[in-house]
DNA sequence: ATTAGCGTGCTTTTT
DNA sequence: GCACGCTAAT
């Protein structure tokens, strides 16, 4: 395809910083791929000097493929996520850190387990502070480069921070003892390495002279500094992103990074890609109108050469079930009457819990589907067990891995034996695995038990030995047999054991596939498993003609001819947790999330909501989302009335009858002056969200509040 | 030492 | 509606 003018400028840009503000569907990936190709084939840049960073492995793989098909399969450049690139650097430079080269990467489950342990150890009351809160707080501290000790000093008087600091300290100690790094560490340790070792920094600066970062709006502060450090020497940085598609603020992404790029890199060229090649005019107008309600953004003017296309169908259903059935009916009729393929359609929702009902309905309509990014494989205990074996073999210091599989399958090593081992490990300041050797002459264990653990020890040593001389797939096959892991299920005839065997086989297939195309060391495979989530793999599914179900977050970067977005209701989309007051910035992020969902649609878009929804097992009365009222009527065909005659759509109510609107100034008898952020309904029943000048945002009911309107 | 059964409590999104 | 964690029973 021919590039448009703006795309061409970006593609042909060679030296110096450049920011590409790429609106939804504006051919962002095309620009990156073409520029890389241009650098290699026309600008004389050696491929190995190019570094391309993406946020998901899926994006990285896709980019790799496209570059290889364009510039030739032999070009070798570095493409990967921040995390995988950092992991590779840290393994090479490990001697400058306090870890050995085979450090394990603590995945999410591992992290949760460690936090729980640390909580128990420091005597935190789990009713008061949840593990999740601690993980978030610790992650924030880490990304500020704050150590547990400095956190302790700064926490004086704040009991919450005090607790966080305590848990943080134990958590860190645990990671270090096991030679493990968590996701945050991968980035942070790399930054610290760059900061402290100028020679190493220089080495990588010279190596990666051309840096490209996709989804720049999703970078967090540590990643930002990483880019600054690595890029400051040659300043050949291309940042590509869209502030309107920033949906990861909650995990530290800072939109300001993209908004301030031109300031951070003086002389940066700024290119705006505003022509949309994906959606119809109607869809694009609707999405743009929605986004215009956000205040904190770069205004942009997306346009398309495409015709108007079909109106967006907006329907409020009485229940979540009827909503799901409507999706099923529509899909069936689009296939039967319009010749659509299942694979051309996708269903989006805000939270994973919504998928179950949809799955049930798809099933009863006999619609082939798949759920993207669903738990399953990587959370299966079989996969975790096998992964633990791998980790222990690669890194015998990993006591967590050791503990997990020391008695799986049964080896007669029970809780008490493990407790004795752990106490001894703590006393001697050793890891679990080496404790096994040194405990033999201590007389702490009976001969029988000693025999059992020594046998286990020997088993692992044998695996370590085997690993050195074999490929990952050979090792895994060997491991599964020699540990008796497969046999454990083979001897059982239950259906559960049968699925376990299937999982094991799937695991073997994964290695086999991996060994086929990548380096085939076990260590690489372990990284692959730790850093790659399953939502990353195959877009081959699209070819298998299945309707795809996914969360709005997972929809980013994809496109479908037909899109259904379900559950566009207050408190669900935007999602508002009951315990938190609603922060305007969070509402803006929710709006961006819906925007991302809408802009995935090429031709047909359905926006659905329900008045009653089952959530956490109970029926909850829902109201249409404020976002629905923000989409202009001219883009919409509202089917609520025809579908259900005796029900008046709250959307109509919402958009037509409101005493207050966003921006109105009011006075409250006790809270004082404030600005209306949002209003649902009218009269005394109206539910208002007001940001008070002195007290911040509050939700109130208009009736009892006795508000005065200011002019 | 292992398992089964029951109650609790929690639910966003992910590298 | 679910997963998880705890307890109690074998």
Describe the structure.
- It is a single chain.
- The two termini are 55 Å apart.
- It contains 32 helices and 21 strands.
- It has 711 residues and is an alpha/beta fold.
- It is globular and about 85 Å long.
- It is 48% helix and 15% strand.
- α5 packs across α6, α17 crosses α25 and α22 crosses α25.
- It binds a DNA duplex (15 and 10 nucleotides) through α4, α9 and α27.
Main sheet specs: 8 strands, mixed
* Strand portion: 15-25%
Low-confidence stretches: 644-658
Number of helices: 32
Helix and strand composition category: alpha/beta
Number of strands: 21
Helix share bin = 40-55%
Q: What overall geometry do the principal axes of the alpha carbons give?
A: globular
Rg measurement, Å: 28 Å
Global mean pLDDT? 84
User: What gap, in angstroms, lies between the N and C termini?
Assistant: 55 Å
Write the layout of secondary structure elements.
Layout: H1 5-12, E1 18-22, H2 28-41, E2 50-54, H3 57-71, E3 78-81, H4 82-92, E4 104-106, H5 108-121, H6 131-143, H7 148-154, H8 159-177, E5 180-182, H9 183-196, H10 198-207, E6 210-213, H11 221-231, E7 237-241, H12 256-259, H13 261-264, E8 269-273, H14 281-291, E9 312-319, H15 320-338, E10 345-349, H16 355-364, E11 369-371, H17 381-394, H18 399-405, H19 415-428, H20 432-439, H21 447-468, H22 472-482, H23 485-490, H24 495-517, H25 522-531, H26 540-543, E12 547-551, H27 552-555, E13 560-565, H28 584-598, E14 601-615, E15 618-621, H29 626-629, E16 636-638, H30 640-643, H31 650-656, E17 665-668, E18 672-680, E19 687-692, E20 696-701, H32 702-705, E21 708-709
Parallel strand pairs: 1-7, 1-8, 2-3, 2-6, 4-5, 6-7, 9-14, 9-16, 10-12, 10-13, 11-12, 13-14
Antiparallel strand pairs: 14-15, 17-18, 17-21, 18-19, 19-20
The structure holds a DNA duplex (15 and 10 nucleotides).
